[in-house]
Amino acid sequence: MDHVGLKFSVFMIEILRFVGGVGLLTRDFFKELKGRFYWKLLSEQIYQVGMRSLPLIVITSISIGMVMSLQFGLGLEKFGGKMYVPKLLAVTILREMGPVFTSLMLAARVGAGIASEIGSMVVTQQIDAIRALGTSPIKKIVIPRVLACLITLPILVSIANVVGNMGGLIIGATELNLDPNFYLLKVLTTSSIGDYLSGFGKTFFFAFFIAIPSCYFGLNVKNGTKEVGIATTKAVVVSSILILVGDFFLTKLFWIVEKL
C-alpha cells in the first residue's frame, strides 16, 4: 500500500512539475516574441513541419474518409438512409475527424522529432553553446518550432478536410452507388461555415498542445542519450492526450459560442 502511495506521489509531482514547466516555457515564448526574429529558422521549420508531413496527412485523410463513408453507408442502408452519407461524413470530418486525426498524426511525427532533436542538442551541449554566444535558446529553438506548428497545422487540416471528403465521394460513387454530382452537391449545400470554423478554430490550440510540451521535454533531457528516447515517448503521449482531452472542452466551448 505504501509502495502504491509512493508511486502515486511521484506521479503527482511529475504532473505538477510538467504543468509548472510548460507554464514557464509558454510565458518565455510570448515574452521573447519581441525583438530580433529568425525568419530563416522559421521557414526551415515550416518546411520540416508542413511540407514533409503532407504525404502522411493526405494518405491518412483519404483512408479515413473512405472507411467512414463505407461504415456510414452500410449502417444507413438498412434504414434507406444512404442519401444522408454525404452530409454526415462532411460534418464529421469538418468538425472532428479532420482536425483531431491531423493533429494526432502531427504529434506522432513532429512532436517526436522536436523532442528528440532538442534533446540531442541538450546532450551535445549545443544549447549551452547558444547561451554562451549570448543568444536565447527560446528565440532560436522554441519560437520557430511553435510558430511553424501554428502556421502549418491549420493549412494541413484544411487539406485533410478536402481530401477526406474526396475519399468519401469515391466510396459513395463506387460502393454505395450514389451519384457523384448528388454527393458533391449535398456536401456543399449541407455543410455550413460554422462546421468548418468549429474544427478550424481547434487547430491553433492543438498546435500549442503539440509544440510546447515537445519543446519542454526536449529541453529537460538531463541524463545522456538514453533520456532522449524517453523524452520523445513522453512528448508523443502527452501531446496526444492533450489533443483528445482538449478536444472535448473545445467542442463544448465552440458549441456554447454557436448558440449565442
From TrEMBL:
What does the record say about its membrane topology? Multi-pass membrane protein
InterPro entries per the UniProt record, alphabetical:
ABC_MlaE_roteobac (IPR003453), Permease_MalE (IPR030802)
For this record, an example GO cellular component is: ATP-binding cassette (ABC) transporter complex
The UniProt GO MF terms for this protein read:
phospholipid transporter activity
Q: Which UniProt keywords apply?
A: Membrane, Transmembrane, Transmembrane helix, Transport
Q: Which Pfam families match?
A: MlaE
**Subcellular location per the Swiss-Prot or TrEMBL entry:** Membrane
Segments spanning the bilayer are 6-25, 46-68, 88-108, 146-173, 193-219, 231-257
Q: Which family does it belong to?
A: Belongs to the MlaE permease family.
Protein name per Swiss-Prot or TrEMBL? ABC transporter permease
| Organism whose genome encodes this protein | Bdellovibrio bacteriovorus
